[in-house]
Amino acid sequence: MSEPEPYEPMPDDWQRALAVVAHPDDLEYGPACAIAGWTAQGREVAYVMVTRGEAGMDTVDPAEAARHREREEIEAAALVGVQDVTFLDHRDGAVEYGLPLRRDIAAAIRRHRPEIVITLNFHERWRGGDWNSPDHRVVGRALLDAAGDAGNRWIFPELLAEGLEPWKGVRYAAVGGSPGARHAVDVTDCWEKGVAALAAHRTYLDYLGPDHPMADARAFLERKVERFGRRFGGRPAIAFELIGI
Fold first, then answer.
1. Confidence at residue 161, expressed as pLDDT on a 0 to 100 scale
2. CA angle 84, 224, 69 (to 5 degrees)
3. 3-class DSSP assignment, residue 131
4. d(Cα 75, Cα 155) in Å, to the nearest integer?
5. Percent of the chain having pLDDT more than 70?
6. How many whole angstroms separate alpha carbon 54 and alpha carbon 204?
């Protein structure tokens, strides 16, 4: 069997990014390690959470879960240099693809005017073959579509009345956790911040229990950056699928 091709470096010709994911903690399972490095370089990154993750813990009332997960996401974001975190309040576990979701994301893109958007794997399966969640699949696809919507003044013209002018500047989408990843980011100097960000989700990690493979934030991310690093010159790395917009 032939060796997999090495990852290519991610483009660095951008200054502003917007990360749009379904749930609090989605970014912390890898992409936040790279985000820590980007903000340390002086790049601007903002987060949009489509839900508050309220349906993520079977034994916790949704309203209480939402409070915990919102607070912990804001803390996790700050640990990697992100201060702007928005929650769209779509229903966790039942996010629907459609015009309302595209409109909300297009509005966020117009507001933040990013050159690159970041999301989580939206393909049907994860790298190991497991089935992906419907929220992840819906949000990623809606983000790609909304990146085009954001640049067309005749789609969602009501956004103009809110002072949100069209933005055609999105050039790339970076998809973390994708089985189609071909690019990577060296996180040698910043992955520890990613560990702290994942560990900030104490309520959810405690709910998973000590035997869950993601419950130990350090061990989980260490395995990940080492695995990706084997295809990136042996340097700790986080991999992304890069899609042109």
1. 95
2. 35
3. strand
4. 35
5. 99
6. 11
Section 181-187 average pLDDT: 98
Q: What superfamily does domain 8-244 belong to in CATH?
A: LmbE-like (3.40.50.10320)
Burial of 103 (C-beta count, 10 Å sphere; 0-12/13-18/19+): middle
**Is the whole-model pTM more than 0.85?**
yes
DSSP, collapsed to helix, strand or coil, labels residue 61 as: coil
Asked if 222 and 214 touch (Cβ cutoff 8 Å), the reply is no
pLDDT at residue 212, rounded to an integer: 87
CA proximity to 31, closest of 42, 41, 45: 45
* Tens-digit pLDDT profile for residues 44-100: 999 999 999 999 999 999 999 999 999 999 999 999 999 999 999 999 999 999 999
CB 83 within 8 A of CB 47: no
Amino acid at residue number 220: F
Q: In the chain, where do the E strands start and end? A: 8-9, 16-21, 44-49, 85-87, 116-120, 172-176, 183-186, 237-244
The residues spanned by each domain of the chain are: 8-244
> What's the pLDDT at 127?
87
Say how far apart CA 213 and CA 226 lie, in whole Å: 16
The CA–CA distances, whole Å, from 165 to 148, 159, 190, 220 equal 13, 7, 35, 41
Q: What are phi and psi of 222, to 5 degrees?
A: -60, -45
- Cβ-in-10-Å burial (0-12, 13-18, 19+) of 245 comes to middle
Classify residue 145 by burial, with Cβ atoms within 10 Å: 0-12, 13-18, 19+: middle
